[in-house]
Amino acid sequence: MKIIRRPEVMVAWSENLRRQGVTIGFVPTMGALHEGHRSLIRAGRRRSDALVVSVFVNPTQFGPTEDFARYPRVLDRDHALCRTEGVDVCFEPTVEAMYPKGYQTVVMVSEITRRWEGERRPHHFQGVATVVTKLFRIVQPHFAVFGQKDYQQVLLVRRLVQDLNLGVKIIICPTVREPDGLAMSSRNIYLSEQERTIAPLLYKSLKAGSEAIRKGVIEAALVQSTMAAVLKQEPRFTIEYLAVCDPLTLEPLTLVTSKAILLGAVRLGSVRLIDNLIVSPARNQRAKRLSSA
Ligand code: AMP
Fold first, then answer.
1. pLDDT tens digits for range 109-118
2. How far is the CA of 253 from the centre of ligand 1 (A)?
3. Which pLDDT tens digit goes with each residue over 207-220?
4. Pair 30, 162 in one domain
5. Within its chain, how far is the Cα of 30 from the centroid?
6. How far apart, in whole angstroms, are the C-alpha atoms of residue 3 and residue 63?
7. Could you tell me if the CB of 127 is within 6 A of ligand 1?
8. Best mutation site among 58, 81, 146, 172 for ligand 1, i.e. most ligand atoms within 8 A of its Cβ?
9. 75 and 162 in one domain?
10. How far is the C-alpha of 27 from the C-alpha of 53, rounded, in Å?
11. Cβ-count burial of 83 within 10 angstroms (0-12 exposed, 13-18 middle, 19+ buried)?
12. Which residues contact 104 (CB under 8 A, 6 or more apart)?
């Protein structure tokens, strides 16, 4: 496996392979790789001739009070995982190489970033959109793989690619979970032992919402209170949002009569957890909708 640190070296490597007709796959990450990342890497490996994984803790997507400085950095372990999975290049630029002195350009995707994560984390999505655009220009992949775990980010990236004609196919992989349902995340290591035992309640609350919808509940407010009731069993959670939304626009729904996305964000101690579930309503609700159409 090649380790490339300089953007211009990465560009030259990709340009050379593209000239030879090689299909380049790309998995952007912030490192501290876990099984969720591994599943993305495997999906990328299956579809590509050459696979690039980037490890870059992007400062511009962290708020001033967030965890940029303490974000886990374990490059040796990340390299080992990448080697095991047959990655061709690990691209790990420095902050200075990505944002040299005088840097002043940002990319902003408007509507889709307004709510939820965008509302709680000002500038976060501007940082994401900017770094993804830069990474796509540098790595020049034919396709890139992202996780459903960060659902709003996935919608942003799709929008960005379409709006800026970036010509990168976007592949989405399902969320990989711990056996107890907690979505894997590089930040889970910050959870204390006690917090770790209750952390799966976020997923349980989304499951409860999805069960309610499957059983025929269509009022989004009722679904939301079902989800909230699960989390309220544990006073250590602070709910940031629990939402029932249109899966394409992320606008909140009043009635769930077709596919929806359940979004959740909570704080648990010093850790912020997010998760989501895609859900389809009970068959009879769909039938009712069709017969009234
Ligand atoms: P990160 O390193 O957290 O920026 O994530 C890099 C990529 O891995 C993003 O596309 C995430 O959505 C994805 N990812 C993170 N956690 C998971 C997970 N538990 N399952 C699947 N994909 C994930």
1. 999 999 999 9
2. 26
3. 999 999 999 999 99
4. yes
5. 11
6. 29
7. no
8. 146
9. yes
10. 5
11. exposed
12. none
